Amino acid sequence: MERNLLVIDIGNTNVVCGIYTDSIDEHKSTPTLVNTWRMASLKIRTSDEYYVLIKNLTADLKIDYICVSSVVPSIGKTIEHMIQKYFEAPYLFVDGNTDLDIKYLVPNPIFIGSDLIVNAYSAWKKYQRNCIICDFGTATTVQLVGDDGCFYGTIIMPGMITGANGLFKNAALLSNIQIESPTVLLGTNTRDSLLSGLIKGHAYAVDGFIENLINEFNHIENIQIIATGGISNLIAEHSKYLDHIDKTLTLDGLSLIINKLLVTKSD
């Protein structure tokens, strides 16, 4: 017998969903990812419209549990209304008050983004090592999580695509280009110059943060560097520190949270 888990990560640019199966077997401790898909984060969509999109992609599976991470409150409310209206399944929205046994260095972790919390929990449980997590999305975040579940903190900078769009919008002579891996450091035309600056520049900036974190927290050893997010492969090509890419880190974290907080309570 298997349970079907629906996980939803609501970001500023995309809503990413995943379906996991979780075998009711004491010898199998982690859910299995079956399918993922993404859709644009549109605030104008109704709960009914989100349901049609999600239902079409779940292939009419009976959903047993749902876990959501959201950094867009208005879409989060719409998704919650959709869950309440259409799914007869226990659900959970992750935030700083979710009981994940994470150790925070701030008195009120409710102000920490739920995506950061999910990534921290996922890295802690999946790798069981000290981890620096670099998430490349609308914003680029760099966070340090201890092998004891300590959430040391986060760096937030504009994402590469976000920065590129701002540049294209405000610099009249710089036209929009297709984002792909640069082949040279010094460009001899606008396209190559932009690609070098955008992608290599972003990789070098993240490398600088990682290097300084390693130096400042030199008492923390055996650190795993993890890259996640839509363009993580592209940035990792030009980084000397991004040695492991985990595209499903956030979704995996949501599935692990279901196992910890929803499945355990119902068994």
Short account of what is shown:
The protein is α/β, with parallel strands linked by helices.
Your description of this structure?
With 267 residues, this protein is α/β, with parallel strands linked by helices. The chain folds into 2 domains: 2-93, ATPase, nucleotide binding domain (Nucleotidyltransferase, domain 5); 103-250, ATPase, nucleotide binding domain (Nucleotidyltransferase, domain 5, 2-Layer Sandwich), CATH 3.30.420.40. Helix content is 37%, strand content 25%. It has helices at 47-57, 73-86, 114-127, 160-170, 190-216, 232-236, 249-266, and strands at residues 2-10, 14-23, 32-40, 65-70, 91-93, 103-104, 130-136, 139-145, 150-158, 223-228. The strands form 2 sheets. Strands 3-2-1-4-5 form a 5-stranded mixed beta sheet, sandwiched between helices. It has a 5-stranded mixed beta sheet with strand order 6-9-8-7-10, with helices on both faces. Strand 8 and strand 9 form a beta hairpin. Helix 1 packs across helix 2 and helix 3 crosses helix 7. The longest helix has 27 residues, at 190-216. It is globular. It starts with a strand and ends with a helix. The mean pLDDT is 91.
Instruction: Using the coordinates shown, work out and report the CATH topology of the largest domain.
Output: Nucleotidyltransferase, domain 5
Mind telling me the C-alpha Rg? 19 Å
Q: How many H/I helical runs?
A: 7
Going by CATH, what is the homologous superfamily of the largest domain?
Answer: ATPase, nucleotide binding domain
Give unreliable regions as ranges: none
The CATH class assignment of the largest domain is: Alpha Beta
Order of helices and strands: EEEHEHEEHEEEHHEHH
How many structural domains are formed by the residues? 2
Question: Which overall shape is indicated by the principal axes computed on the Cα atoms?
Answer: globular
